[in-house]
Records
---
Amino acid sequence: MAKVDTSLVAHLPLFAGVTPEALDEILREARSARYPRNSAIFEQGADAQSFFLLLHGHVRAAKTTPTGEQIVVRYVAPGETFGLAMAIGAVQYPATAIAVDDSVVLIWPTSAWPRLVERFPSLAANTLQTVGTRLQESHTRILEMSTQQVEQRVAHALLRLAKQSGRKLDHGIEIDFPISRQDIAQMTGTTLHTVSRILSGWESQGLVESGRQRIILREPHRIVVLAERSADSGAA
Amino acid sequence: MAKVDTSLVAHLPLFAGVTPEALDEILREARSARYPRNSAIFEQGADAQSFFLLLHGHVRAAKTTPTGEQIVVRYVAPGETFGLAMAIGAVQYPATAIAVDDSVVLIWPTSAWPRLVERFPSLAANTLQTVGTRLQESHTRILEMSTQQVEQRVAHALLRLAKQSGRKLDHGIEIDFPISRQDIAQMTGTTLHTVSRILSGWESQGLVESGRQRIILREPHRIVVLAERSADSGAA
DNA sequence: TCTGGTGTTTGCGTTAGCGCAAAACGGAAC
DNA sequence: GTTCCGTTTTGCGCTAACGCAAACACCAGA
C-alpha cells in the first residue's frame, strides 16, 4: 500500500480542523490509484463501494437519463472529493465519473465512513459544508437555465471552468483539460451544434480561440459582459 | 417561551439517533413562531440569524436574479428544515422564504448550531443526509430541464407536489396549499402562460381540475404517462 | 351590490434554438 | 505519407415556446 504524503492534502477543506495525527490515521484507510484518460472511475447505478479524493487530473461527473441523454453534473478539480454517495445515504452512485485526463485519486471504502465520522466529527461538518456549497451552485445553475439564454449560459460555464481549472497564458486563459463542444452543451442544457455556432461567433470576434477539445479565453472581460447582459444588443 | 412537545418532532429524520433527553435539550434552544399566509420568513441576502423547522403549513423558498426574475427552489413541507445557511457556511440567506399558508415554525439562532453539533454529532450527519438528498433532487431537476420539454416537466412537478403535499380525495389528489400558474412556471423554467395552456389542455381531457391557486389531479396515472413519454404521440 | 385587484385564459405573431444532414477538419496509428 | 475516426463546422427548415395584449373569472372588501 503506497504511503500518501500528508502535507499534500493537509490544507484541503475536507481536513480543516483535523490534527496531523488524525490525518495520518485517516489516510491509512485510503489507497491511491491512477486512472488513465477517458477511463471510468465508477458508473451510475453501481454499488457505491468507495468514495474519492482527486489528487491530480480532472474528472467529469455525468448523469444519464433512461433514454440515454447525458448532462455533466460537474467537473472535479484536484483537491475535491467525489463519489460521496454514502453521505446522502445512497447505496448506488447517482452519476458516472470519468477521468478526462490522466488522474490520481485517493480511495476510501464506503464502509470506513461511519467510523471515520465518529472518530473525527469535523469530517462530517466539513463535508456538510462542501455538499451545501454544491447545492447552492446547483440552484444557481437552475436559475440560469430558467432565466438566461443559451449564449449567456455558455459564457458563464466557460468563465467558471476558467476560474476552476484555467491555466493563465500571456494573453488569455486556457482551460487545462480536454473538453468538447458536446461537454459544454451538456453543462448548459443545449446542443453541441448551438455551442459550436456560439464559439465560432466568438472566435470571429477574437473573444476566444479554440480547437479540438481545447478552448482559450482571449478576452475574459468581454465574455463577462456577454454573461451578464439581459437580452439586448446584437453585433455591430 | 412556549414549550414544544418533543413527541411531535422526535420521529423526524433530523433527530434520528438523538435520545429523548438530548432532544429536550435541543428544543430548549428553540422558540416557535407563527407566520400568516403570504408573509416573509426571511429575505434573500439578509443575515442568516436563524435556521428553521417547519411544524405546520407550507413554505416556498425562492431565488431572485439581479434583474428580478424568480425561480422556486422548493416547497417546504411540515417536518422539513429550511434556512440552513450556516450549514454551508453562508452568512446570508441565498433565497427568500415565504409562508404560502398559515405556518408554524421552530426557530434556532444560527449561533447555536456549532454548539449543538458538537454536543450531538448525529445532527450534522442527519443534516448532511438531508442536504445530500436535496442536492440529488437538484441534479434531477437540472437533468429534466436539459432533456425534457415543458409539458413533461410540469407533469413531473405536479406529481412531486402531489406526493409531497397531496391530500387524497375520493377521486384524485389535491395539492393542499395555494399554488398559482406562476409558481409552477417558476418551478419548471417556463412562463405562466405556457403552464396555463397546458393545464387547460389537461382539464379538457379530464386529467386535472383546477382553479384559482388550486389544482386537483384527477388522473394521476395518466399524468405519469405524460411525464415519462419521450417526445411523440399527440392527442387522439 | 358594486368595485378593485389578482389570478387565469386565450389569440396571435415572432424567434431562439433544435434537429437533420453533409462536409470539412485534425490527430493518432500504422 | 496515408488512412481512419471522432470532432467540429455550417446550412436549412421547423416548431415549441415565448412575449405581448386583451378579455375574463373570482374573491374580498366597501
---
Amino acid sequence: MATTKKRSECPISCSLDVWGDKWSLLIIRDLMLSKQCTYGDFLKSEEKIATNILAARLLMLEENSIISKLNHPDSKAKVLYKLTQKGIDLLPLMIEINLWADKYSTLPAERKAIVEEIKKDKEGFIKTQTKELKKVIL
Amino acid sequence: MATTKKRSECPISCSLDVWGDKWSLLIIRDLMLSKQCTYGDFLKSEEKIATNILAARLLMLEENSIISKLNHPDSKAKVLYKLTQKGIDLLPLMIEINLWADKYSTLPAERKAIVEEIKKDKEGFIKTQTKELKKVIL
DNA sequence: TATTTGTACTTGCAAAACGCAAGCAAATTT
DNA sequence: AAATTTGCTTGCGTTTTGCAAGTACAAATA
C-alpha cells in the first residue's frame, strides 16, 4: 500500500503527504496539458521518470482519488489515466506555480504563451480549462 | 552544495527542483505564519523535522534566494530566518494549497478560520499578508 | 571566573526511497 | 505463429532520509 501516515493535521502537510514529491505534480501537469495519458505517454515526458517510480506514483494518486483509470477506446492493452474532479481542482495551484516560475525565471516559449494568457484573465482561464478537463470525466 | 541539476526547462519541474520535497513548504509555511523563525522554532513544529534535514533544506532555500538569515537582535547565538521577496511570492501558491485541502478534508479550527478569511477576499488577504511579511525584510 | 545551559548545527549509521536495467504477461500487429 | 507493444514488476546498487549522539560557540548561572 502506498498510503502513508499523516505527519500532522496541517493542510499544507497533509497535501504534501499526497503529492509533495518530485514527480506527482509532473504527472498531474501532463494530465492537465494532455487531458488523458497512457503509461507510455508519462514515460515520454522530458524529465524521464523511472518506470517503477511512475507505477508507484500513479497508484498513490489513484488511491488518493486525484486520478483514475479508464478503458482505452481502441485497445484493451492500453490504459488511459485522467484527472478526477479533485485532481482538476489542483489547477489553480498549478497556475500559481507557473506564475511564480515566470516571475523568477525564463520559461520556454510555449509555456510562456500559456502564462501570458493566464495573466490576462486568470479566472477565465481556470473556468475554460476546468470545463475542458471535465469533459474527459464523462 | 545543495544545488541540483535541472531535470527540464518546465516551470513546474524547475520549481519542484527547488521546493518540491516533503519539508521545504512546511518551512515556508512556518515563516508565513510567524514572519521570523529561529532554527529551534522550526524544530518545534508539529511535523518534527529531523535536524540534519532542516539544516539541508534551510541551506537549499537560502541558496535559491527564498529565505535569508538575519542577526537576532537579542543574541549572537541565535539566527533568524525570514522570507525574501521571492519567498513571499509563494503566498498565492500556499493559499491555493489551503483552499484545495479545505475542499477535500477537514481543517483544524485555527486554520479553517484563516481559510474562511481568504475565501471572503483572496486578493485583499494576499495584499495585507504580503505587506506584513515585507516589513520583516526591512 | 568556572560551569552549566541554550542554540545552531554536524556526524554516524541503519532504513527507506530512488534510479537504472532487465524481465514478464497479456494484448495487438504482422 | 511470431514479433512487437503496453503496462507494469523485480533486482540491485546508489542516494536520501531519519534518528541519536556529538560539537562549537554564545550566554546565563553559580
---
Amino acid sequence: MSAAEETPGGEDVPWGEVTPEAARRLLVAAVEAFAERGYHATTTRDIAGRAGMSPAALYIHYKTKEELLHRISRIGHDRALEILRAAADGGGTAAERLADAVRSFVRWHAERHTTARVVQYELDALGPEHRAEIVELRRESDATVRRIIDEGVAAGEFDVPDVAGTTVAVLSLCIDVSRWFNTQGRRTPDEVGALYADLVLRMVGAQK
Amino acid sequence: MSAAEETPGGEDVPWGEVTPEAARRLLVAAVEAFAERGYHATTTRDIAGRAGMSPAALYIHYKTKEELLHRISRIGHDRALEILRAAADGGGTAAERLADAVRSFVRWHAERHTTARVVQYELDALGPEHRAEIVELRRESDATVRRIIDEGVAAGEFDVPDVAGTTVAVLSLCIDVSRWFNTQGRRTPDEVGALYADLVLRMVGAQK
DNA sequence: AACGAGGGTGAGCAAGCGCTTAGGGTCGCC
DNA sequence: GGCGACCCTAAGCGCTTGCTCACCCTCGTT
C-alpha cells in the first residue's frame, strides 16, 4: 500500500514503483533537472542526457515532457498525503498527532527537497486536467490537517481563533521548507522537523 | 527615500520610480507575465504585446529579458527590506515591533502578490552577479527580523530556544503568502496580516 | 523649411525547442 | 537459426525563442 517500495533491508527506495528501470532513470533525472532549473527551463535533451540516453528515448516511456511532470507530481502528492494521514490516524492526543504530522511532513520536505520543490512549485506547468487532479489531492491534505486542529479545539487542547487560516499557515510553513532547505546547511531534516513541530504547537496554543 | 512615488492624493504609485513611461509599461507587463507563467515560460513577445508595443521595442529600454527581471527583483527587495526596517526601527516593545513587521510585510506580499511572487520565486533565473546582489538583500532582511527577536529575548518578552531557526520560519511563512494568496479569495490582505502577526507572536512565546 | 535626435517598427537571423520517424541491435522463444 | 518484440538511436522537421538591424515617424529647435 506504500507509495515507495522497500528493499529486503527495509529502507525506502524512492520511485521504486516506477518501472521499467529505464523509465525510472528518466524520471529521477527529470526530478533533478526540474528542481535545479524549473520545468520550463529544462529541456528534454537535458533529461535524457542525465539518464544516459538519447533525446528520443524519453518518448518511448513518456508521451510528453508534461506527462513526466505529472507522474512526478502525482507520486509526490500521494506520498505527502499518505504521510499526513498516517499521523492523523495515529494514536494519542491531538497535540501529539499534530506534532507528528508536522515532524514527518517537514522531514520529507527537507530530505526529498528536490522532489518536493518540483511537486510544490511546478503546479502551474501542468495541463488543466492534470492540475485539477493534483489540486484535489491538496484539498485532501488541507482537510487532514484541519481535522486534527478541529479535534484539538473540540478537546480543549488548542486555542485557535481561526482554524481555516491557521491550517493554511501550518501547511504553507511546512511546504516552504523545500524552497530554502539545503543539504549543505547546518540543520538536518530531523532537527528542522523537531523545530517546526514545536513552533506549530505554539501556533495552536497547545499547553506544553 | 521611499521606493514608491506618491501622487498629490498621497497613495502609493507602484513602480513610480521607473521612467520613462514606456519603460514602466514594459516593466509592469513583465511583472504580470512573470507572475502568471514564470520567467522562463514568458516570451519577450508576450511582454511587449501586453505593453502595446512591438517585440523590438523592449530592447530599446532593456538590454535583455534578464535585465527586466533584475530590475523588478531589485526594486521589490528594496521595498520589502524598507518595510521590515521601518517596523524594526519603530517604537514600542519587541512584541509590538515584531507584530508590526509581520503585519506590514504580509500585507505587502498579499496586496502585491504578483510582484512578490516574481521577487521571491524567480531568484534562480537571475544571472550569477545579479543573484548575489539580491541574496545580500535577503540576508539583510533576515538580520532585521532576527534583531527584533533577539531584543525580545533579551528583554524577557519572548521565549525562543532557537532564534536563527525561528527567524527563518517567520520569514518563510510570510513570503509564502505570495504563493497562495488570491485576490478572489475570502481574506483581505489586512486580515491575513493580522492573523499572521498573532501566529508569529505565539511562535516566539510572547505573553498576550 | 530643414534638421537631428530619440523612440518606435517589420522583417528576419541563428539557435534551440519539443517531438517524430526510419531503422538497427539484442534478446527470448519456437 | 529464424523471427518477432522490445528498446534505443541518428537525423531532422516545423516552430518558437531571444535578440538585431535597417529604416521611419514625430518632435522641438533653429
---
Amino acid sequence: MSKGLPKRSENYPEWYNELVKRADLAENSAVRGCMVIKPYGFSIWEKMQATLDQMFKDTGHVNAYFPLFIPKSYLSREASHVEGFAKECAVVTHYRLKNAPDGSGVIVDPEAKLEEELIVRPTSETVIWSTYKNWIQSYRDLPLLINQWANVVRWEMRTRLFLRTTEFLWQEGHTAHANAAEAIAETEQMLEVYATFAEQFMALPVIRGRKTANERFAGAVDTYCIEALMQDGKALQAGTSHFLGQNFAKAFDVRFASQDQKLDYVWGTSWGVSTRLVGALIMAHSDDEGLVLPPKLAPIQVVIVPIFRSNEELTRISETAQAIRKNLLAKGISVKYDDRDTYKPGWKFTEYEMKGVPVRLAIGPKDMDNGTVEVARRDTREKMTMSREGIEPKIAQLLTDIQENIYQRAWAFRQENTVRVDSYGEFKELLDRKGGFLLAHWDGTSETEEKIKEETKATIRCIPLDAEEEPGACVYTGKPSAQRVVFARNY
RNA sequence: CGGGGUGUAGCGCAGCCUGGUAGCGUACUUGCAUGGGGUGCAAGGGGUCGUGGGUUCAAAUCCCGCCACCCCGACCA
C-alpha cells in the first residue's frame, strides 16, 4: 500500500476511491455493487441521521417502518412509476433452498416457488399508499406525516462507493394532505430542511430548484431538489422532495371525506436523502492529504496525541491531556485521547489527517515545561502553539471557525465555477475545460434538453427557485426563454 | 448488454513472451535501538499462482473452456 493518496488533479475518481478506503469509511463487499460501511463511515451517517431525524420531528413528522418486500402487482398500479423503476428491481421468486443432489452445495428448491413474486423495494410509495388507504377516511386523519429510515435496492449497472450502490440506506418521508396547496407547502418545507442541513451541517452550499420533466421522479407531478457542486466540477443531487399530486392516491384509491362532505383523493408528497450524502461530503471538502470533515458531522472533533519517550513522561502528559479532554467533553465536544504506544506520533498525525479530524492537539515534554499545547487545524493544516490555560473555549471557537471556513471555501469554489453562458460554443468549451454550473437560457422543451444531453453529456440540474426573470434566447435553439436554468455534468 | 483490462501472501505488484526450487514492496510477529510529521536495523511466519480440462518428464508460464472483478459506454439518488 503506497503512503500517499492519488492527487485530485491527476485522477479524481481514483482519489475518491482510495480516500474512502484509506479513511476507513467503507469497502466493497462480496456482492457486486454493494458496500460494507465501516464503523468510522457509519458514524458519519449516524450523525447525519440524528440531526435530520430531529429536524423531521421538529416539523411534525413521526417515524414508522414499512416492509422490505413489495408484491409485484403493487408496482404496476401507477404507470409512470413502474416505468421509472422496472429496469432496476431485484425480484424474490423462491422461499427455500435445498442441498444439491450431487453434493455440490445448495440450490434453489424448484418446489418452493412463490405464487406472487416479491420486489425488493426500490422506494416505498406503493406499499405505503396501499397502507394509507386503510388509515385515511376523513379530513380529520390528515395530514399524515410519516418518515421511515430504511434500506432500498436499485439494480444499477455501474456503482461507486456511497455515490451509487445497489443497496443504500436512506430516509423516505411520505405525507398525505387534504389539499394541493398544503402538500406543495410540505414539499417546499422539506426541501428547505434539506438545504438547511446541507449548508449548516455539511457546510455544503446548494442550489434549490425544480426538476424538468425529463429529470422528474417517476410518479411525481413536480420534483424539487438541492444540487451541490463537487471539486471536479460535476454536480451532485443531494436531496429530493416530490409533490405527488393525487397520482398515488388515485392508483391506490386513497380517498377522504372532506369537511364539506365530499369524497376526494388525498394529495401526497415524498422526500428523501441517502448515504449518498456521505459521498457528497467527501467530494466537497477533502484534499490530497485525506478527508476534511465539518466539525458538526465529524465523529471525532478533537484528537489529542501525546509525545513521549518514557512511561513517566506519558503519565505526566496524560494528566494534562485527560483534564483537557474532560473539559472539552463537558462542552459537548467529542474528543479522542490516543495514548497508544504502538504507533508513533507522526504516524498518528497522518492517520487523523486522513480521517479528517478537524482539530489535533499534541502535547509533549516541551509543552509540559512551557505550559503550552500544539494545536493543528485540518482545514488549513495550520499549526499554532496555545497556552494550556483557558484553551477549552478557544478550541470550541476554533471548531466553529473551521465549520464556517469550510463552508466559505466551498461557497467560493461554487461561485468561481458558476458561469452565465450565452453561446453554445462557449457552453461546450466551458464544460470540457472546467465543468461547473452553467447558467443558460433554455426554450423549455424536452427535445432541446435531450439534444444538449446527447451532444455534451450535460443535463439541466434544476430550474432554480430564486432565479430572476430575465428574458433571453435559448442557448441551443435561440427560441425565447424567460429565465436561466442550471446545466452541468452530474454524478 | 457492447468495447477494453485484470485475476500470484491481508493489500499493491513483478515473474508469463523464451516451461525447470514462487518473488518484491507493504502489512503482520519477535528483539534491540528510536520517539515534536507514516522511525531504523535484524530475524521470522504467511501461497490450492481465479477455476476446470489439455499439451509436456515437468505448467503461475503454452492451448481450450468457464467464473469473478475493474474501467469505458447505454440506465440512475
